[in-house]
Amino acid sequence: MLNRIIVILLVIAAAVGYSVYQKKTLEGQLEHKQGAILAKLPQATFETLDGRPFDVQKVFEDRTSLLVVHYWGTWCGPCEAELPDLLSFLKRFEGQPEVKFLLVAVNDDKVKVEKHLKTIAIPKANITWLLDNKNVHRDVFGTTRVPETYVFSSDMTTLRKYVGPQEWNKTMFFQTFDEFIQISTRKL
């Protein structure tokens, strides 16, 4: 009987100790993530699908009012599930050259990306497909998981960050992006 009580107490002590350890680890991660939220678009260079370097800040040289940077990967199930919905949402911006979208495939194979793009309907919105196999997304943007989306205004300030897959065709996104465009256009 005494042995059972000792075993039960040891199990409880181990569970409490593990809980305290996990809490401290989580607090440390949250503190780090708070510092990783971007105030402005950082200087970053990705690679186009045809192998050329692409400087994200140069997007703003031609009167861009809104820039959306979306990180995804063909290897990421939630990303693949979200991408058709995102592309459907982007159709709304066809004919608006001042709104630009950078869709960055993270740690992905160029051939797989190109093959995947052939299987989906791509809108005529201003989309640039990029690769990030040098972890620029993590090192410069602070992105630790995909999908993840940043929205930047015309003065390169961060308007919003979306973490995880989104339901892009909800009315909330249409209204929010209309507000983003109004804010950005005033800053031009």
UniProtKB/TrEMBL annotation:
Residue stretches making up the Thioredoxin domain: 35-182
Domain of life: Bacteria
SUPFAM superfamilies: Thioredoxin-like (SSF52833)
Gene3D superfamilies, per the entry: Glutaredoxin
Subcellular location as annotated: Cell envelope
Residue ranges the record marks as coiled coil: none
Gene Ontology terms: cellular component: cell envelope
GO molecular function annotations of the record: oxidoreductase activity
InterPro entries recorded: Redoxin, Thioredoxin-like_sf, Thioredoxin_CS, Thioredoxin_domain, Thioredoxin_ResA/DsbE_sf
GO BP, one annotated term: cytochrome complex assembly
Keywords, in A-Z order: Cytochrome c-type biogenesis, Disulfide bond, Redox-active center
Record PROSITE patterns: THIOREDOXIN_1, THIOREDOXIN_2
Major location category of this protein: other
Name of the protein in question: TlpA disulfide reductase family protein
Species: Peredibacter starrii
Taxon lineage: Bacteria, Pseudomonadati, Bdellovibrionota, Bacteriovoracia, Bacteriovoracales
